Every structure is written in C-alpha cells, then in structure tokens.
Amino acid sequence: MKFENVEKRFGDNVVLKDLNFEVAKGDRVTLIGPSGSGKTTILRLVMTLEELSGGYIYVDGEPLTHEVRNGKRVELGEKAQKQIRKRIGMVFQQFNLFPNMSVLENIIEAPVHVLGQSKEQATARAMELLESVGLPDKADAHPLELSGGQQQRVAIARALAMDPEILLLDEVTSALDPEIVGEVLGILRHIADTTDITMLIVTHEMQFARDVSNRVMMFDGGKVVEEATPEVMFTNPQHERTQSFLQAVLGNGEDQTGTR
Q: Where are the transmembrane segments (predicted)?
C-alpha cells in the first residue's frame, strides 16, 4: 500500500497534506498521535469512506480511487474501485453491526453479496471464525443481545470473512469497558501472529502497538513527524512532539511500554 502526495481537506481545513509513506505486504503499522492529527482520516480514505482531495493511494501497485491518465489525475469508475475495495477490511470503533440481523447474518452478508460465495460456503467460514473469536454459541443472537466486547469480536470475524489482504483497525478498544479490552486485543494479536494480513492500526493502546507492530508512525498536524520500530519509538523517541505525546499518554512514572 502506497500513499503518494495524499491530501485531504474538509472545506478550508487541511487534515492531511503531502502525505507520503508505504506499507509493505504483511507489515503491521500503527499510527499514533493526538486527536485530530489525521490518523482515522487515513483509514477512512483507504476504505473509500472519504474522498481524496489530492494525491493517490495504491494497493499492491493498483490505484485505489484515482490514477494518472494522459497526464491528468482522474477518478476511477465505481466498478474498478469496488474491485480493489474487496481486498480491504475494516474494524470500527463503534462495531457498526446491523442490529436487525443475527450475528451469522452480519458475517455472511458481504461474502454472499459482494464476493458471490454460496450461503453454505459463507456460513461454514462464519462458524469457523466465530469459533476463533470465542463466540461459537452466538450465531443466532442479535448484536444488541451481546456485550460490547462480544460485538467487537463479531465485527472482527465479519472483517476476516472477506479474507482481506489489508485490515484497518480504528481504535477498536476505545468503546469497550477496560476489563474486556484484553480479550479483543488478544484476538488481534493472534491474527497478527498467525496470518500475513497487512495491518494499518490506529490505537491508544501503546502496549498493543508495541506487541503487534513492526513500525510505528507518530502523526501531528496531518504529517508524519517520526517513524521508528516500536522498540525505538517507545524507549527512545527522538522528536520533541513524540516525547511530549508519549509522556502525556503513558504518564510520567510509567515505563514507556505501559498503556494509558
């Protein structure tokens, strides 16, 4: 995945400007930084939930929404965008499950209607995924009958049901009670350990970032101010802005590996 001169504006507010970075296949990259620094906007651009104001995003060398044609920047057609979008999964902060559908129906909806899988094939895979996230007995339940942690685990299973090459994780624990954060992060750690899915992660859980990432990028004002391995980022950050941010998040007395 490659970001080339990416820009995003909301009216006069420039959220991202001249953003350039690459995420190699199988990389686990965590974006950290203060609220409003543009981290979630990046995920929403990759998911095509927001429209690029300028620049290009490429997935495995293919343009996601815009390309250069005859020297001009032009938008791809909806069909071409959908083809690329199938390869990307996202788990949101607020679960975003369909309340009128059962857990099983939530998980098989996209594989059946977007990937063209048979209902039997999609159901078999959904049951495997529910087993893997510890909810094999909740297939017939509806989202509102589940706890927040259970809903988020269903949302993870739903994203994986599309067999994505890229998984976007947007503050997936911030809406959860503290005591169930660990169970969700444990599932994500297992995915990182057992698959080659590329992950782009926005989180305030610094221990999780350290455990799962091979690269951490500090954002401020829509730009990357520092990029390093987790080891360097959390024990010896170089940029003053990174130092002050981590101190605020982790607290003065904590080891740099701690969580908020």
A: none
